[in-house]
Amino acid sequence: MASGAGPQNATEYIVHHLTHLNTTGKAQASIVDFSVVNIDTVFYSLLMAVLGMGMLYSAAQQVRVDAPGRFVGAMEVILDFVHTQARSIVKGDLTYVAPLALTSFVWIFLMNALDLLPLDLMPELGLAIGVDYMRIVPTADLNATLAMSITVLSASIYYGIKIKHPGGFFHELFTAPFGTSKNPVFALVLGVINFALQLVEYAAKTISLGMRLFGNMFAGELVFMLIALMGTAFSLSLGGLLLAFGHILAGSAWAIFHILIITLQAFIFMMLTLVYLGQAHEAH
């Protein structure tokens, strides 16, 4: 790991803020590496999971028939919205599907919302206690978003086997989308093609689901860094004053706009999760 002195120029500043605290004890250049555990990603993911569970549990404990409070009302609106979306997309038992969708929305929203904290707050606190690198937005880490998309893939395969039974699920792998043939040779050729296309479809869904969330949050993080660098150029000259004004204006505008982004990305991930699980309930 680098020394605790922190970044000295614009390049070092950006590199420092894009480097994870990981199990290697040094900066890693690769964007995704499943052989390395990013400790900051795991920590803040678990922290937001606990916070999300605490919020939902607290709302459940405060439910009153006569006069629900605003917090409970807000949680009920989110719950009803997610359940409505799940019921309209998934044609089957929602006992576990709806809670999974609710969990993904609340959890991802909270992880995304960490991007609204002052950019240097947690890294500077980390430097103060001897932690040289710290990234606090788990969804800006491709390792985390791909892990979540693999979880959705696993759930879709599980429900595919559960709903269609093993025989029906594996039969569909080799017969969709082009069907089969009574001719053994044609049936074998079509089976190989169908299976290959099914693998491509599963891979494309999984990778795109993780990359979409990562790309948007990573880009948002970069924009915040560039805006923060504008503030470091402050001086009493006209150019310095303009940069300082631009820093405040751009930072405020991007933070407000980013509220929409973090909410939208959580919503998109939840909806795609429901779509993929809904497809697992349907036969081709």
DSSP summary: helix tally: 8
Biggest sheet statistics: none
Termini Cα gap: 52 Å
Mean pLDDT: 88
Order of helices and strands: HHHHHHHH
In percent terms, what proportion of residues is strand? under 5%
The poorly predicted ranges are 1-5
**Overall number of structural domains:** 1
Number of strands: 0
The coarse overall form would be globular
Helix content: over 70%
Rg, Cα atoms, Å: 23 Å
Structural class: mainly alpha
Which key features would you list for this structure?
284 residues, mainly alpha, 8 helices, globular
What do you see in this structure?
With 284 residues, the chain is mainly α. The chain has one domain (10-280). It has helices at 10-17, 39-61, 70-89, 97-113, 121-128, 142-175, 184-232, 238-280. It starts with 9 loop residues before the first helix and ends with a helix.
Write the layout of secondary structure elements.
Elements: H1 10-17, H2 39-61, H3 70-89, H4 97-113, H5 121-128, H6 142-175, H7 184-232, H8 238-280
